[in-house]
Amino acid sequence: xxxxxxxxxxxxxxxxxxxxxxxxxxxxxxxxxxxxxxxxxxxxxxxxxxxxxxxxxxxxxxxxxxxxxxxxxxxxxxxxxxxxxx
Amino acid sequence: xxxxxxxxxxxxxxxxxxxxxxxxxxxxxxxxxxxxxxxxxxxxxxxxxxxxxxxxxxxxxxxxxxxxxxxxxxxxxxxxxxxxxxxxxxxxxxxxxxxxxxxxxxxxxxxxxxxxxxxxxxxxxxxxxxxxxxxxxxxxxxxxxxxxxxxxxxxxxxxxxxxxxxxxxxxxxxxxxxxxxxxxxxxxxxxxxxxxxxxxxxxxxxxxxxxxxxxxxxxxxxxxxxxxxxxxxxxxxxxxxxxxxxxxxxxxxxxxxxxxxxxxxxxxxx
Lengths: 86, 270
Known about the structure:
The structure holds 2 protein chains of 2 kinds.
Chain A: H1 13-31, H2 38-52, E1 60-67, E2 70-77, H3 81-84
Antiparallel strand pairs in A: 1-2
Chain B: E1 3-8, H1 16-29, E2 34-38, H2 46-50, H3 60-64, H4 70-73, E3 75-76, E4 83-86, H5 99-111, E5 116-120, H6 127-134, E6 138-143, H7 147-160, H8 165-169, E7 175-183, H9 185-189, H10 196-203, E8 206-212, H11 215-223, H12 234-246, H13 263-268
Parallel strand pairs in B: 1-5, 1-6, 2-4, 2-5, 6-7, 7-8
Antiparallel strand pairs in B: 3-4
């Protein structure tokens, strides 16, 4: 250990813990409450769409976001090329 | 009216059972009629901490399933007149605890005149933990000043705010209190440990108690004597303060600052 290291301040581990916790807790609180039903909603929507169009399961995207203080449920379905000409 | 208090944490090993036992003893020592229930089905431990393991004949699940009466299953504490213990069952059947059964037992305890029902929750967020908190009026969330414990406690706060009878009925929800255990003021002062204020700020809860890290907690569990009953211990005084705050008294926080060393200790001490 050099003499200089005595004067250098190492970051305190507690403040590191606090910062990490602040971020993860905020993130988890945001995710709480809403997304529980999303997988089921996605599956049921897929079944309905499937009745009319033969889409790939991965072609249905559902996201729940926040825009200007409003919750926005975004649904995006990409239809296969061949189906459109029918 | 009985008040139901759940002692919970999410993470295991942070001191839920130690806290349940000490809070129950503290309330009973003040003359309250108290019963403390172990919800950790399959991993009974409260009986050991309370020192009544050899007197368990019937347990919580026996009462729910009608194998015995509630009176037969309640174990009367030998030290404090108004304190009773209801032990967890050692069954491996996960479905032995039912919501309806738990409600019936809690109702009967309230009708029997118990003023405080302390529910010692198991770790985790499974059925036992869910049922321990479901009927609660208040929650004591036990937290170690350590990153994973704080995060898990926040998960538990989310469940208290949504998956409890009070939350579902919308009548004010469960009142939540923060209780820090294994607190080491010296390490907090040197920046190695989260402080009371850090944890308070992250979780957004009022502090009902700070229990310093103490070798007396282990000796207490070794002896089956809840640590609050060891009047020489700092941990005992900290739990005593927590009990007072639960009863609505205003008590300043102790054991949060580094003890000041005298000149002699500074020169000759470690």
